[in-house]
Amino acid sequence: MRAQPQASHFIDGAYIEDTSGAPIDCIYAADGTQIARLHEATPALIDKALAAAARAQVAWAALRPVERGRVLHKAAEIIRARNAELSELETLDTGKPLQETLVADASSGAEALEYFAGFAATVTGQTVPVGGGDFVYTTREPLGVCVGIGAWNYPTQIACWKAAPALAFGNAMVFKPSEVTPLCALKVAEILIEAGAPAGLFNVVQGRGAVGASLVTDKRVAKVSLTGSVPTGRKVYAAAAEGIRHVTMELGGKSPLVIFDDASVEDAVGAAMLGNFYSSGQICSNGTRVFVQKGLMPQFLERLKARTEAIVIGEPLEEETQFGPLITSEHLEKVMGYIELGLQEGATLITGGARLNRPGNYVQPTVFAGVTDEMTIAREEVFGPVMAVLEFESEAEVIARANATEFGLAAGVFTADLARAHRVAAAFEAGTCWINAYNLTPVEAPFGGSKLSGVGRENGHAAVEYYTQVKSIYVGTAPVDSPY
Ligand SMILES: NC(=O)c1ccc[n+]([C@@H]2O[C@H](COP(=O)([O-])OP(=O)(O)OC[C@H]3O[C@@H](n4cnc5c(N)ncnc54)[C@H](O)[C@@H]3O)[C@@H](O)[C@H]2O)c1
Ligand SMILES: O=CCc1c[nH]cn1
Q1: Whose CA is nearest to atom 8 of ligand 2?
Q2: Which of 156, 447, 458 to mutate to test the pocket of ligand 2 (most atoms within 8 A of CB)?
Q3: HSE-up of residue 372 (Cα within 13 Å, Cβ side)
Q4: Which of 113, 136, 360, 450 is a good FRET partner for 393, with 20 to 30 A between their CA atoms?
């Protein structure tokens, strides 16, 4: 099988197999062939991973931050040197075109490692005078063993966005990739060891929801960071609450992209396409509700249709392919169900809407216009290449409609009027917003959602809040004033 790893799990510095765990078959989304067979982690392996992490964390946290940073820097260097091989694996794991994975996945992981490598040694506390010569100083301490649980759309990026801050700040991690894309995180674990990380610091265990659930409730675990859907987020957040564990929840969205009629049409069309068709639409922050001001609508739709129909759909490993399959045949059925609902509920199909007559889970990039706020495709996360275009007239109206959703992951605005751009961005109820850009997620910027889309932030300075805890130390300098 073309992507079979050495073994299913990476625990305590080495690959390890136990075929008594239920099988996980990896299917290449572009042609339906099996590329690997892995096995779920047994309770004994889960225990081994958590014990290794707990042991490794103590010595790792005692290192100077600059020493921890050195290991992460080295890992980033190795990832960059092996980008071609890692990108090909990402493509096999997910079906995303190589054109994307060569620039967006392993390299994004490397950036996270570089960023947090440099950040580690800058983390300091405060000195707080409290009167009478006494003072309090604070330190930021690691949380301990962190559990990372990943979604399937960005397996390398998700593993690195969680591992990099966790390790930089002195924690250890047990990571469970999505059972749909189990391959890439193993490479991250292998590379960290090659870079000099101690055995046990970053472990990968495979499995479905039950394996994730057993990690979340283990007494050795201090923090859980999940990237996944809102329904899973509810379960994981509740389970973590039982043990009063720290959490980061990176969940789903139904984000608005608002285009005023003074915007550059080409830029707005380009952003709407990026925010709906990149990774075949399987990106959490996608701007799937595209609000276009009435005056611009005809021109916008004309250019959108022409440019969408020119997208090169094909075999993901071929260089010219811009658009690949959906992750699984089950997900293809789900996305086709939403397209069917769009038609039934009266939206106008501008382009796409059909599956491709070839092996693999291919559906055309699809655009619906005439979408109203009540339609299912305007309310629910499709997580596929289905753009809903809605018309609006005024700024006040579009802000109210953009915010009328239970999600709050992201939002974008296109306009030539910068005062309006800032006003609209300030009014968005979303954790991550863009002005005259969409879906750019540099590691320097905090990323995450509000409302049902999540709790906490990944990346940027904000990440230190989610992978450390503050300790206050009061220093008395005078005789103790006791009434007893
Ligand atoms: N906000 C973000 O940063 C972000 C990024 C990528 C994807 N997502 C979201 O992820 C979803 C798509 O990914 P998915 O289908 O893999 O999501 P999912 O919720 O089905 O699964 C996510 C992960 O949770 C695990 N899991 C399932 N049940 C569990 C339980 N009870 N306890 C512990 N772990 C459990 C799964 O095995 C998987 O590893 C979309 O909603 C998308 O928007 C969010
Ligand atoms: O899928 C969600 C996270 C993300 C956004 N852009 C790239 N990755």
Answers
A1: 283
A2: 447
A3: 6
A4: 450
pLDDT (0 to 100) of residue 265: 98
- Residues near 261 by Cβ (< 8 Å), separated by ≥ 6? 293, 294, 295, 296
**Residue 412: helix, strand or coil by DSSP?**
strand
| The pair of three-digit structure tokens given for residue 260, joined into one six-digit string | 């005023």
Residue with tokens 């991250």: 188
Cβ of residue 284 lying under 6 Å from some atom of ligand 2: yes
CATH architecture of the domain with range 9-252+453-471: 3-Layer(aba) Sandwich (3.40)
The pTM of the full predicted model, rounded to 2 decimals, is 0.98
CATH 2.30.110.20 fits 256-435, yes or no: no
Q: What is d(CA 207, CA 204) in angstroms, rounded to the nearest whole number?
A: 10
Return residue ranges of the chain for CATH 3.40.309.10.
Answer: 256-435
Classify the complex by whether its ipTM is higher than 0.85, answering yes or no.
yes
What is the number of the ligand 1 atom nearest to the C-alpha of 250? 1
Of residues 40, 90, 114, 250, which has the active-site annotation? 250
Give the C-alpha separation, 473 to 469, whole Å.
13
Token code pair at residue 134: 């006494």
Pocket, ligand 1, Cβ cutoff 6 A: 149-153, 176, 178-179, 208-209, 212-213, 216, 227-229, 232, 235-236, 250-253, 284, 381, 383, 409, 449, 454
Residue among 316, 335, 364 at smallest CA distance from 105: 316
What pLDDT is recorded for position 447? 98
Tokens of 186: 């193993």
Q: Is 250 annotated in the active site?
A: yes
The size of the chain, in residues, is 484
Q: Which residues of the chain have pLDDT under 70?
A: none
Helix (H, G, I), strand (E, B) or coil at 24: strand
Match 């392993």 to its residue by tokens: 106
